[in-house]
Design brief:
The protein has 280 residues and is of the alpha/beta class. The protein is built from seven helices and 14 strands. Helix 5 packs parallel to helix 6.
Amino acid sequence: MPFFELFDETLDINSTENYELSVEVSHDGLTFCLLDTIRNKFVLIRSFNPDENKYFSIGQTDEIISKDDFLTKKYKKVKVIMPSSKSTLVPAPLFDPGKKDDYFIFNHLKDDNELILSNKIADPDTYLLFAALIPFTDLVNKFYPDIQPYHHVKPLLRHISHERKNLNSHYIHVHVEREFFNLIIFGSGTLKFCNTFSYRNISDILYYVLNVFMNLGLSQEETIHFSGQTGKYDDLSSNFSIYVRNILFASPSGNFTFSYVFNELDLHRFLNIFTLANCE
């Protein structure tokens, strides 16, 4: 099981009441980070991932949380992300909480082992509905009772809202997960496009993104911001650079800083879990 962590020398397991815990959990892995709220500084990130071409079972995830020295401590605040490829946005003025399942099935099939959850989004003024696997929501409730899980697009939209304010052009963002990616486009201050695509290879991602570019009349001079499971000089960014002139990797921003031990970390890979500190 691949394991990764970075931690600051000021990290104190006996002071977790001064920390905020952010956890991202799914079949694809478990990652968490700690924000020292006194210094407003991230002091730890720890990630557990299944072996290649494997997934974590509920039992394996339960065991990871139970045995981790930090995940079972008491915190000032706890926030949880549950990534999912199945989500949809509903304008806030039209939203009725009692009809969230009805809204969801307009765009997706709902499986028996899924629960439809909702998050309020400030920009744009919408509700984000998403499918969460019931065994994972039960697991989250077991360790962190009364916590309302967030979909990964909520912190992603929070980041984009902050970053696009100073732009007169389009803001285009591609966030890559293990088996799907999100494409979000703002233009003229409004959301132009937000969708999720499953993919099997890099060619799929190129096809979908460039097809949207063509349909929206976007220029190759536009800038694409990347986050998630991609990086500088990998096959994805190298192939995109053939068709799009400007490629940037999104950096988390907000009322927080990072310990120096994060200096060599590709922060864009963990954009959502860091940005979660800005979400309410």
